[in-house]
Amino acid sequence: MIVSPSVLSADFANLQRDVEMLNASSAQWIHIDIMDGEFVPNISFGLPVTAAIAKHAKKVMDVHLMIINPDRYIVDFKNAGAEYLTVHFEACTHLHRTIQSIHAHGMKAGVALNPHTPVSVLKDVLCDLDLVLIMSVNPGFGGQTFIERTYSKIKELKQMILEGGYNTLIEVDGGVNGDNATLLKEAGADALVAGNYVFKHNNPLEAIETIKNC
Ligand code: DX5
Ligand code: ZN
């Protein structure tokens, strides 16, 4: 299992310390949540902080844009160190063009789906996607309760990917912990984001191991 700890739950006043903790962990990715106070009711951090994290991070930079009009910032996030760049389906009028642009800038392209958005909307772009991020909470905040309906969405998406013969990864984000990781893996998840479960755990390295070995 790919583990992508979300630095949204890190201590922002000790960000380098927390990034170095992740470097020393068995996590493969590092999840960066960008919020604009417009697409979601919260503001997190933006480009300079992403670049500062990238300077120290030895893990794959997995950037999740919860912003309207993400097309405006694709080149900036490339320059800030993003390797996977994920935009929201609900924020893109010309999603296919956005995906093309992410690829043209040398990044892997992901699309995130809010809990209310069915996976079927991705049918005609799935062949172009490196990643689908299924939100298992309503985006905007860490520490929310996992939505149980997510399992069936993952299964449905996995079926679509297998039928098409694609290599698209399924990532799940929100309320992931040591108790639901195994069920998420069984449903078809390839990567799990975890914020609170990792950073509020008394042993974050162990929390990461638990998810990785689920
Ligand atoms: C929520 C963010 C998540 C968040 C997950 O909008 O996209 O990445 O950090 O946090 P937890 O794991 O605490 O639910
Ligand atoms: Zn996220």
What is the H level of CATH, i.e. the homologous superfamily?
Aldolase class I
Low-confidence stretches: none
Say which molecules are bound, naming each kind only once.
Answer: D-xylitol-5-phosphate, zinc ion
Average per-residue pLDDT, rounded, comes to: 98
Structural class: alpha/beta
Helix content: 25-40%
Which fold name corresponds to the CATH topology? TIM Barrel
Main beta-sheet strand count, sense and barrel state: 8 strands, parallel
Oligomer: single chain
Q: Count all strands and give the number.
A: 8
Order of helices and strands: EHEHEHEHEEHEHEHH
How many helices in DSSP terms? 8
Instruction: Label the CATH architecture.
Output: Alpha-Beta Barrel
Ends distance: 7 Å
Name the shape in a single word. globular
Side-by-side strand order of the widest sheet: 1-8-7-6-5-4-3-2
Task: Explain what the structure shows.
The protein is an alpha/beta fold and 214 residues long. The protein has a single domain, classed as Aldolase class I (TIM Barrel). It is built from eight helices and eight strands. It has an eight-stranded parallel sheet. Strand 7, helix 6 and strand 8 form a beta-alpha-beta unit. It is globular, with a radius of gyration of 16 Å. The protein starts with a strand and ends with a helix. The mean pLDDT is 98. The chain binds D-xylitol-5-phosphate (DX5) and zinc ion.
